[in-house]
Design goal:
Length: 151
């Protein structure tokens, strides 16, 4: 079991590293540019080129069943989920087959509304409650995967 983080816009990089270290898991941060990241024995960094979806493509190539992907990118979540990875949004939402479909549909609708000028784009504010939900979701996911591996 490994953790892959879509790091470019992830607000929970430090928190994910702490949970990974507590469980002795390798955590790989994938980004399009160099950035300050947590330091640790099991922390890996991958900087890909700047092409669209290059970080996503790298993560999907590496991820396997039983790994965890942390991302807010719905298309990446769908691709990772198809490879039997567990996918968690930085706000603690765990992506499932059903929720990915709904999220993709909502993403497409919002994109169309922004293009037509019917709405102006802005993301919700990331709150301490979101951070707490993320930590709980990551811990629960790791514990579930560990129990499944022990069977």
């Amino acid at each position: 079991m490994q953790i892959f983080v879509d790091a470019d816009a992830c607000p929970v990089k430090d928190e994910a590293a702490k949970v990974a270290a507590r469980h002795d898991l390798v955590i790989t941060y994938v980004s399009n540019s160099h950035m300050r990241l947590p330091i640790g024995e099991e922390v890996k960094r991958v900087v890909v080129g700047g092409k669209a979806d290059e970080a996503d493509d790298w993560i999907v190539e590496q991820v396997t069943s039983g790994d965890i992907v942390i991302t807010a990118d719905v298309p990446l979540a769908a691709r990772a989920h198809k490879k039997a990875a567990q996918v968690i949004n930085h706000n603690g939402k765990v992506f499932t087959e059903d929720s990915i479909g709904m999220a993709l549909a909502m993403r497409n609708l919002m994109s169309q509304l922004r293009e037509t000028g019917d709405i102006k784009g802005s993301n919700p504010v990331f709150t301490p409650t979101d951070r707490s939900r993320f930590l709980q979701a990551l811990e629960n996911t790791i514990q579930t995967l560990k129990r499944a591996a022990a069977i």
